[in-house]
């Protein structure tokens, strides 16, 4: 299994269809400063919990800072049996510029 790279506009369309899980692999401070609406921050400490709670038959979007680290993480999720895994090109920085109204702050 492998993942697909996806542009922000296509990710937004996928999000609007519903049932999209979003894993944000950035550090806590960056996540709090702004993340995709509905995203969950995932790191080594909560990875097992996230995987247990995330259906493998639903689309999964992986997001990082600029779209580089998320590719490795997306490949990992694909290797764990997730059917439809995407890595967000441009990452959270691109998302914030493209869709400020779909960016949450915690």
What can you tell me about this protein's structure?
- The chain is an alpha/beta fold and 106 residues long.
- The protein contains five helices and seven strands, in the order E-H-E-H-E-E-H-E-H-E-H-E.
- The chain has a single domain (4-56, 64-104), classed as Rhodanese-like domain (Oxidized Rhodanese, domain 1, 3-Layer(aba) Sandwich), CATH 3.40.250.
- A five-stranded parallel beta sheet has the order 1-6-5-2-4. The chain has a two-stranded antiparallel ribbon with strand order 3-7.
- Helix 4 (69-79) links the parallel strand 5 (60-63) and strand 6 (85-88).
- The chain is globular, with a radius of gyration of 12 Å.
- The termini are far apart.
- The relative contact order is 0.28.
List the helices and strands and how they pair.
Layout (H helix, E strand, L loop, with lengths): L3 E3 L1 H9 L4 E4 L3 H6 L1 E2 L3 E2 L5 H7 L6 E4 L5 H11 L5 E4 L2 H8 L4 E2 L2
Parallel strand pairs: 1-6, 2-4, 2-5, 5-6
Antiparallel strand pairs: 3-7
């Amino acid at each position: 299994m492998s993942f697909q790279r996806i542009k922000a506009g296509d990710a937004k369309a996928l999000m609007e269809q519903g049932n999209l899980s979003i894993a944000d692999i950035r550090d806590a401070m960056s996540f709090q400063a702004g993340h995709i609406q509905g995203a969950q921050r995932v790191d080594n400490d909560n990875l097992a919990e996230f995987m247990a709670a995330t259906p493998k038959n639903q689309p999964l979007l992986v997001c990082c800072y600029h779209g580089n680290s998320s590719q490795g993480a997306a490949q990992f999720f694909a290797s764990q049996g997730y059917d439809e895994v995407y890595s967000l090109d441009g990452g959270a920085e691109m998302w914030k510029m493209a869709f400020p109204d779909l960016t949450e702050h915690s």
